[in-house]
Automatic annotation (TrEMBL):
The protein's name: Alpha-glucosidase
GO annotation, biological process: oligosaccharide catabolic process
Entry-linked SUPFAM superfamilies: (Trans)glycosidases
Domain Glycosyl hydrolase family 13 catalytic: 13-384
Family annotation (InterPro entries): GH, GH13_cat_dom, O16G_dom_2
Domain of life of the organism encoding this protein: Bacteria
Organism: Planobispora siamensis
Family: Belongs to the glycosyl hydrolase 13 family.
One GO MF term attached to the UniProt entry: alpha-amylase activity
Length: 509
């Protein structure tokens, strides 16, 4: 039987607000996505995942949903969504949408009713005195509880404007099953499940052990066993539709074993492998993550970047003197990830080698993390700066006219536009296109296992029959293993010598 489409898919994350603005208001939208679909088809990805575009006050960039069945006017209309999906499918691109089941926006009609004292059992309200009902801290900083004027407290693991649902209430289950069907009926191919290890909290909401809010199974907050029943139900719904509809979970855990629980055959199809993204630039660290991932026997995925983390170019370059090393490593890590069995998730701008924008002025920053930490934590705006498409000045083709994008773009991005890189064979964009093309050509013939080959200590060599990948994380050049042909490399490779901070794909006999 042929493997389902998602198994080896390359999925491109679109943070809609920052991808492309067709309406000219400085904010990306669905019509903008639609216009740029040919670019993504040419890039060679298999699917797109859209971050939330639902009705939202946008306190947390749309992860605060006020209406799960409608498009926010900022991003367009349901008709724009349908047109975008139709075009994507026409181009052979699958469409994954985000679903946010842990919490809604405070502007959701259910929470508005709860504020009036109606239906509070849909959320997690507790009596309490002047102190919060327990010691839980919000992921965004500060207590996870907010008190209403009538004295009751409600739980929000994120911003106070994102009240957590009570998943012990059957009404919440029914609502989300219906929301899934709403989007499946509109033709989506899958869902990315936000904070998928949240949802259930331990009965009685006990304190967390002091000093730690780990994503461990023992945590009263995350990864409660009851959550798996939700995904069993959702899986049944997905399977009841034709066309291999899928779900990928945002599951943060401490171990590959905990992660594998979500990937049992009757639960989620995939979850993000954040261990890969969290690994430092080190052959040992990469090897450990690869081994841990492959050993669980579930559908592997790989990801280096998304709308919540510092862009890899900057991450890998942190603290280094040479400013080009971060980009070299990001390209090498990308090539390594694309050689591994399973599916890979890219984040918009990764194909352009965009760095994190670190010097955004405080007044433009919008991530609630920044304000809630009193400005101590910069937050995630730096990886959400609108994409540079063309031209030599802001808004670099992001918006049709000379409007200010919702976050300012740096002047250096004139050299990084998609247009400029398209015509440069040495660019990161050209490199990504080539890597994705070769991957497509080879993937049907490659085994879904890897075999390690002997390598110098700071390098990794692994093979999948006709494809061998070599990556050099050390400071000395290394000799490539025997091969017939150099297929692609993340930086120039000469005389069979792999320079530091470089990866290469080799055709092997
Ligand atoms: C996820 C999203 C993130 C959001 C959070 C709360 O981690 O990726 O952007 O802030 O959930 O919904």
């Amino acid at each position: 039987m042929e493997a389902p489409w998602w198994r080896e898919a390359v999925v491109y994350e679109i943070y809609v607000r920052s991808f492309a603005d067709a309406s000219g208001d400085g904010v990306g939208d669905l019509a903008g996505v639609r216009q740029r679909l040919p670019y993504l088809a040419e890039l060679g990805v298999d699917a797109i995942w859209l971050a939330p575009f639902y009705r939202s006050p946008m306190t947390d960039g749309g992860y605060d949903v006020a209406d799960y069945r409608d498009v926010d006017p900022l991003f367009g209309t349901l008709a724009d969504f349908d047109a975008m999906v139709a075009d994507a499918h026409e181009l052979g691109l699958r469409v994954i949408v985000d679903i946010v089941p842990n919490h809604s926006s405070a502007e959701h009609p259910w929470f508005q009713a709860a504020l009036r004292g109606e239906g509070r059992e849909r959320y997690l309200f507790r009596e309490g005195g002047t102190r919060p009902p327990n010691n839980w801290q919000s992921v965004f900083g500060g207590p996870a509880w907010t008190r209403l004027p009538d004295g009751q407290w409600y739980l929000h693991l994120f911003d106070p404007s994102q009240p957590d649902f009570n998943w012990r209430n059957p009404e919440v289950h029914a609502e989300f099953l219906d929301v899934l069907r709403f989007w499946l009926d509109r033709g989506v191919d899958g869902f990315r499940i936000d904070v998928a290890m949240g949802l259930y909290k331990a009965e009685g909401l006990p304190d967390t052990p002091p000093g730690k809010q780990a994503f461990k199974a023992e945590s009263p907050i995350w990864g409660r066993p009851e959550v798996h029943e939700v995904y069993r139900q959702w899986r049944k719904v997905l399977d009841s539709y034709p066309g291999e509809r899928m779900a990928v979970g945002e599951v943060w855990t401490d171990s590959a074993e905990d992660l594998a629980l979500y990937l049992r055959p009757d639960e989620l199809h995939q979850s993000f492998n954040f261990a890969w993204l969290e690994a430092p630039w080190s052959a040992t660290a990469f090897r450990t993550v690869i081994d841990d991932t492959m050993v669980t026997g579930t559908a592997p995925t790989w990801v280096l970047s998304n709308h919540d983390v510092v862009r890899p170019v900057t991450r890998y370059g942190e603290g280094l003197v040479n400013s080009t090393t971060g980009l070299a490593r990001a390209r090498a890590a990308l090539l390594t990830m694309l050689a591994l069995p399973g599916s890979a998730y890219l984040y918009q701008g990764e194909e352009l080698g965009l760095p994190e924008v670190k010097d955004l002025p405080p007044e433009v920053r919008q991530d609630p993390v920044f304000a809630r930490s009193g400005g101590k934590i910069p937050g995630r705006d730096g990886c959400r700066v609108p994409l540079p498409w063309s031209g030599i000045a802001e808004p670099y083709g992001f918006s049709p006219e000379a409007v200010d994008p919702w976050l300012p773009q740096p002047p250096e991005w004139a050299a990084l536009t998609a247009e400029r890189q398209s015509s440069d064979p040495g660019s990161t964009l050209a490199f990504c296109r080539q890597a994705l093309r070769i991957r497509r050509e080879l993937r049907a013939s490659l085994p879904d296992r890897i075999t390690w080959l002997d390598s110098p200590e700071d390098a990794l060599f692994f093979t999948r029959d006709s494809l061998t990948c070599a990556v050099n994380c050390g400071t000395d050049p290394v000799r490539l293993p025997p091969h017939e042909e150099l297929l692609i490399s993340s930086a120039p490779v000469n005389d069979g010598i792999l320079p530091p901070d470089t990866a290469a794909w080799l055709r092997t006999p």
